Amino acid sequence: MTPVQKLIGLVLAILLALSIGVGGAWLVQDWRLGKKMAERIAEQGARHQKELDAITGEAWLQQSAELDKRLATEQQLAIQDQHHTEELSDAQRNQARLRDQLATADVRLSVLIAEDSASSCNVPTAPGAVGVVHAARRAQLDPAHAQRIIAITDAGDHGLIALRACQAYVREVSR
Questions:
Q1: Given CB 3.0 to 4.6 Å as the disulfide criterion, which of 48, 105, 146, 151 pairs with 109?
Q2: Tens of pLDDT, residues 91-149
Q3: What's the domain range around 34?
């Protein structure tokens, strides 16, 4: 080999050694940057997980509060429903008792008669009729008509009780 060829080989060997050294240093630096990046990503993941845990905990608390609120409302509505059912049952019992008393003639319905001096129509009062209004003339109703009046008031009572139950429900739910 000639000295020029030796010199070229030596220069090539030095260049090769330098490129390997620089490449290795670059790889080491790249590895270190990759390691730092991985650490940053891990830290960010840990922070994100803590935030998710906090959000999840808050959501559980809100859900628990809403569940407690719903259960309390349901319990209150059940109590009100029981109260209105009892009220309806009492009204039905009272109406049935009044119908029975009318049927057995224990009780008679009567109406006040307005005394109109211009009218010549005077309905005779029942003999021995006693009322709350003294010296007022009263006429007793036919038992069939009295039964129909009681049925109408019974339906009205049921309607009023149902209306109160609906209003109580709406008030409770809208709170």
A1: 146
A2: 889 888 888 887 777 777 777 887 665 555 555 555 555 555 455 787 888 888 888 88
A3: 3-114+133-174
Q: Would you say residue 128 lies in a domain?
A: no
Residue-wise over 7-35: b if at least 16 C-beta within 10 A, else e?
A: eeeeeeeeeeeeeeeeeeeeeeeeeeeee
Residue 138 has a CB neighbour count (10 Å cut-off) of 19
Side chain identity at residue 133, one-letter code: V
Indicate the residue type of 55: I
Structure tokens at 105: 């003639």
Tally the domains of the chain. Answer: 1
Q: Is residue 124 included in any domain, yes or no? A: no
Torsion on CA atoms 81, 84, 89, 94, rounded to nearest 10 = 180
